[in-house]
Amino acid sequence: MQYLYTFLLLTLTCSTALFGQDTEPLKVSFGDLRVRDIGPAVMSGRVSSLAVVDREPKIMYVGSAGGGVWKSVSAGASFMPVFDDHVQSIGAIAIDQDRPDTVWVGTGEPWVRNSVSVGNGIYVSTNGGQTWDHKGLENSEHIAKVILDPRSPGTIFVAVQGQLWSDSEERGVYRSTDFGTTWKRLLYVNPTTGCADLTMDATNPDILYATLWDHQRSPHFFRSGGPGSGLYKTTDRGETWTEVTGGGLPPKPYGRMAVEIAPSAPDTIYLTVEAREKKDKGLYLSADAGNTWVKQSQDFNTIVRPFYFSRLAIDPNHPGKVYKCGLNLIISDNAGETWRTVGSGVHSDIHAVWVDPGNSNHVIIGTDGGVYESYDGGYAFRMYMNLPISQFYHISVDMDQPYNVYGGLQDNGSWVGPSQSPGGISNADWKFTVGGDGFYSFRHPVDKDVVFAESQGGGLVRHNIKDGQSKNIKPIPDKDEPPFRFNWNSPIALSPTNPERMYFAAQFVFVTENRGDSWKRISPDLTTNDPDRQKQKESGGFSLDNSGAENNTTIVCLAESPLDPQEIWAGTDDGHLQVTLDGGANWRNTTASRPGLPATTWCTSVEIDHFKKGTVYATFDGHKQGDQQRYVYKTTDHGRTWTSLVTDDIEGYALVIRQDVVNPDLLFLGTEFGLYITLDGGLVWQRFSNNLPKVGVRALVVHPRDHALIIGTHGRGVYILDDLRPLRQVTHALQQEELTFLDTDTAYIQLPRSGGWFGGSGNYVASNPSANARIAYFMSKRHTFGKMYIEVLDQEGKVIQELPAGKSAGVNIVELPVRYPMPKAAPTNNRMAMFGSMITPSLDEGDYTVRVVKGKKTFETTLNLKHEAAEVYSAEARKAQANTLRKLFDLTEELGFVYYASDDLREWADTTANLIKSKADRKELLDLKKGVETWRDSLVALDGDGYVAESEAIREEISTLYLEVSQFPGEPSLGQMRKTEILIDRMKAHSRELERYRKALDKISDKWAKKGVSPLKVRTMESYKRA
Amino acid sequence: MKKFLSLLLIGGLAISMVQAQSLDEVLKKYYHNVGGLENWQALQSTKMTGRANQMGMEFPFTMIMSRPNRQKLVVDIQGSEYVEAFDGTTAWTINPFMGGTAPQKKSSEESTEAGKQMFEDDLMDYAKKGHKASLEGEEEVDGTRTLVVKLTTQAGDDRFYYIDAENFVPLMIKTFANTGQMKGMPVEQYLSDYDEVDGMMMPHSMTTKVNGEVVAQLTFDKIETNVPVTDDLFAFPADK
Question: Could you report the predicted ipTM of this complex, rounded to two decimals?
Fold first, then answer.
């Protein structure tokens, strides 16, 4: 309830009038603002390449399709991303096996499906991935393989597949002999042909085979195969190449081919051939170094989808043991004559195989759904459940508390997961809803059981969470209607004004108000309807590839205005952006009025302003036409005129734009290379990189209640920027001030929630938002010299906490633990008692003063705290807990004081006994000392091993009870409260004992002080607490 | 203190006038602004007393370091001592969290790593020590322009110093974890609250981030220089 109240207050107080338009660009440091990722790793994502240190296979690198490079030094028990500052689409990884800290990464995945991301050349690390140097081949876009010459660490061969969507001359086989400083193109035939595979003779590195692949994609068509494709061989390190033809090979032209030399028998060559004729396709074997060939197999997986699966691996110890990537992995023990298929439990679509040279039964594979490892030669595989490289297309959120995130993923269906979970968000927290490739997915705005999700080509379903059943609700053409053209990634839009209204689109826009049971068509064909762009059924080249991925002249973006349900926008994959202002009766194409936008450029998002009618933002992406320019536009007159919001700050073609729901000038832009934020309506953009890699950002959602930005990436799962409030308040004026507090509203003292168990390292667990309150402020300059810290004062003006301050120029977020400091305590060797005395009671509800001390200046603000527990536990119950806890806290400190004060007595008695001459007094002193010692030792348990050989004294009894009572926010049990009183009584007795000894010693002290002996000094409770 | 402020001002002016600077120039300004290389090279030991904030809790600590690479950190955990120490050969610990109340010698790998933490910063006179350094360009740290100096130690470890381009003091030092589960992860130490101690400018606040996430914040309330130290202080208790 209180959340809703806060939300309402916030929306009431933040009117658009607060945010004036300024013409000066507003550029600031994001400082401590940091995104957290929430996974998921349960379905992982596409893996394009693998590299393993042969002599130490626990060290491996995983190259992902869109999620960068991950390194494990523990055989997959844990992984660490090592390439976050660079493009995340990985083509090939090569380790220098003699110097395994040297690792080469060729970027740009070679498995070039419609949704593939792009690379920007080759990188090398000489320190095991800690830092990377870019080594050129900037325009290569896709790199299929990197091979190092084992004789010379500076010699690198690169199979450059080249640009997918356009002609380019940076493709073919490249070699550097100076560690990547310069490159020589060794093999090239034409601007649409790149190198798709490369293999080197392990016994004679002068010999290499390369397959060239003639291919090209457009938004609406894919061609694999052409005159440029061929098999080539060199015997002089690539200086000269001979095309290998005849001798049993089928006639040209070819498509994509994989080639591998058997490492243990270098005259044995395997080749898969994509030929024009079906009879010529398949796996070919040469036993004489490529002179003659035999067609070994036409197994389905040797010929299926060559553009996606042309990769072979040969067992390093057995030349006849062959692994072929395919829809499934197939394995042959007899040089490809017969095969067995790896089936159950492993994700389909295999792209990479590594076979351990030291143990042929040890196999690691990369698939569309992560990495799997087998130790029995490829029968049983276990999955690495800790690679969050999931590829989202779209995401959405609900209004649960905490909210959930919904989304669809490339080849991994549609899922829902929580934004936080006790113990962290684990694989088990993510729930699968609908299969296929996944795209838009929403929960019904009011019916919690209903989720809308879709698969490729408009496979829209209404899924019931309760019983797991899904109804297909895809619109079907009536008898007088033309076939509907649904995009691979068809748009769904929920109405922001009516929870029962939903839009969907093919080339037409449809609307339903009965959850998809029936649809009403509300537009004409809004696309170019160009028949040349409607050849999906012929797409694929030498292997028909009618998957729906090239469906074109379709609507791909949809939105209803939050200010006017009659205003609907629809963007297409062929360059149209259409608007209706009358609920679909009339549509107007706004394309012609956009400056600088080439015709037919794909519309990637449309965002209707939340505050001002007529204002709309849109992004366009031309990379599928070979144009990687950035296109971001704004109109303020319903699309009659547009201005570009692109600045040089933006890198990567634009994929999505969203406006904040509170500050109209705060815009978020996702591109192929990360997240960009503008604070001034687009005058200047800044890349947000605090924990966010340079990953393709395809989906952005501002949570309407929780001030969070949820970021869907195509390769690194979902990230959340938990609190947008500080960013909303950044203005030019702040840059003139030394320090300005940013409002963070009421903070909630959260209930402690335990969760998680001993899962070891193998499962991915993402972090929760911090349970601390936040202090936010903006500084115009970093603090470097002199003291700077934060004091928190209670209602009485007493300093209850001192915290290190944030020192950054820009936004600083300091986490304030909503707890008092822990009590001072006597020592113990009892482990649970030690943990017990580290418990810190919650702060009370109310206002606190936050004071930033910066040199001689101080800055103050007020922080309001409320208890989350207040919703469940009555004020009386919480008070009972707080009182008991406070008593036990005080007891802990009292005992600590008595313990250390008794030490003062003991030490004085001991020292003085050696100084004085009176035998009687000395004896009394030593007796008292012994008495103090024995009594003091009875207060604490210092024997034992800190684990199971422990004992218990009053110190341990207090702390154990303190721990127990602290764990429940309601009324303690009667037994706990009674025990507290018993301990208080016992403590009183100990305090009296301290007094008794002190008085006895004081007497002697008084007597001897006159004779020059230092008098007895015992610390006070106050000095003990201060120390 | 006044002297330092004027030095810093001069440093600040210098950067706006000079565009390209060599590594030597950058280091010269850095050492100048922190009190002079000779002062730092004359330093024999330091004792730092302060507070460590970790996971929302605060613990008092004392850290003593001396040439060449001896160190001892004592943290008071509710009356129990947590100790991390290195005596020049062996690293040892007392860790009450792990159930141990007796001192334990650490693994040889951990001892090797501890031994690499030299009292005198490796960047000082790096060439004489057999390390390599280079100026890598500029980068923004904490919203502030810094010059990045890369140091590669003789042992092959890379370390990056982000030196404030205006004030010429390090704002951040980045290393990489060499052992354990965190192996290879970037470890960043953000330095601030520089103040004068016996003629040298020393940071009194240090925030450590692993993989970008804050793991510990140290506040040094008091820094003493050239405190007397004995071998005994660092030695493994059983060997005493």
Answer: 0.86
